[in-house]
Design goal:
Layout: E1 2-6, H1 20-34, E2 38-43, E3 52-55, H2 70-83, E4 90-93, H3 100-103, E5 110-113, H4 122-129, E6 135-137, H5 140-143, E7 151-154, E8 173-179, H6 186-195, E9 200-205, H7 211-218, E10 227-229, H8 235-243, E11 245-250, H9 260-267, E12 272-275, H10 280-283, E13 290-293, H11 296-303, H12 311-321, H13 324-342
Parallel strand pairs: 1-2, 1-4, 2-3, 4-5, 5-6, 6-7, 8-9, 8-11, 9-10, 11-12, 12-13
Helix pairs in contact: 1-13, 6-11
Pfam family, one: Glyco_transf_4
Protein name: Glycosyl transferase
InterPro entries: Glyco_trans_1 (IPR001296), Glyco_trans_4-like_N (IPR028098)
């Protein structure tokens, strides 16, 4: 198939540090190319890909100096797409609902993977206004707040099978990986670590929006000798970081739409102790890949049961459910379904094209 992947522009593909959505779009793009598809990626200029790259800004916007209006580059991205839209069989958007007015004008089929939370009140009006957009969820739980959405499939995230290797947990420490923000629960991770007298290594970024929370609620907790704050780490560093860990702590307090870090831990054979929120029960296999708990007290009790889990079995669950190859095949199935539905009664010659810039 001839596929356009339209990525967010906040991070390069792959991202240099944090960036879950961009990481998944990268893995999907590269796997689609490997499987023989013709893929064009609309992304930042510092992206690295085997697909054809159409640059929409010179570098990822989060690291770009003095970028006051990131939406401007996403509008440029849509214009560049419109100039060559006839070249594709399917458009795959990862830019939330930003493109809806644009893609609604096209007869060419498109799908939109929703990577974020959907329990925001304003989204009711969005999905009521655009009821025919083909949506792909990243978990069944993610869909619940917008049952009126036109969801065509759920596709779980996947990682390249050989990206990480199985570790042995020899470090004996817990890890917290991701973002330091109220909903991610780093305070609860610290509480679990201290209650079990286990070292906790925290590899996480701090967004500007969460800096006040960090200063007031978290920073002083990092002074304890059992707590080590590392900062952001890259993909290569994760294999050792996760593989040598006793367990990943995932004590979230929000409706997590997927939880990429859980399958990163599984790829390393590392158990996860995760709170029962959002997609956690879908992604985790309780008592196999770790433990799904409902409180800090339950998490503390689960620690003593970690030794009963098999790292080999955890890795096998990853290989069976969460590889990039499996993810790409699932998306291709969705593409064929949408393309077939779109072209039953529509000629490609009827595709409108937005005016090119002068």
């Amino acid at each position: 198939m001839r596929i356009a992947q339209i990525a967010p522009l906040y991070e390069s593909l792959p991202p240099k540090l944090y960036g879950g959505t961009e990481r998944i779009v990268h893995y999907l793009t590269e796997e689609l190319v490997r499987q023989g598809h013709s893929v064009t990626l609309f992304a930042s200029g510092d992206s690295v890909t085997k697909a054809k790259l159409i640059t929409c800004v010179d570098e990822g916007l989060r690291l770009k100096q003095a970028c006051g209006d990131p939406l401007a580059y996403h509008i440029i991205q849509l214009q560049k797409l419109s100039a060559c839209v006839r070249e594709f069989d399917i458009l795959h958007f990862h830019t939330d609902y930003l493109h809806f007015p644009f893609s609604s004008m096209l007869k060419i089929p498109s799908v939109t993977t929703l990577h974020g939370r959907l329990d925001i009140p304003e989204l009711q009006d969005i999905y009521n206004t655009f009821p025919y957009q083909n949506l792909i969820s990243i978990s069944e739980n993610q869909r619940l707040p917008v049952p009126q959405g036109n969801f065509v499939k759920t596709v779980y995230h996947g990682l390249p099978e050989n990206l990480h290797r199985q570790g042995d947990g020899r470090g004996g420490y817990f890890v917290f990986l991701g973002r330091i923000s109220p909903e991610k629960g780093v305070e609860r991770a610290i509480e679990i670590a201290l209650a079990t007298q286990t070292k906790l290594k925290i590899a996480a970024k701090i967004d500007k929006a969460d800096s006040a929370y960090f200063e007031k609620k978290v920073k002083f907790l990092l002074d304890h000798p059992l707590i080590e704050y590392i900062g952001e780490i890259n993909e290569q560093q994760k294999t050792k970081f996760l593989g040598e860990a006793k367990a990943l702590l995932f004590p979230i307090d929000w409706p997590e739409p997927f939880g990429l870090v859980m399958i990163e831990a599984m790829a390393c054979g590392t158990p996860v102790i995760a709170f029962n929120r959002g997609a956690v029960p879908e992604i985790m296999e309780n008592n196999v890949t770790g433990f799904v708990v409902n409180s800090v007290a339950e998490a503390i009790n689960a620690v003593s049961r970690l030794t009963y889990l098999s790292r080999v079995k955890i890795r096998r669950v990853f290989e069976r459910r969460f590889t990039a190859a499996y993810m790409a095949e699932s998306y291709v199935g969705a593409y064929h379904s949408v393309v077939g539905d779109t072209f039953k009664n529509v000629s490609r010659n009827s595709i409108p094209i937005l005016n090119k810039p002068a």
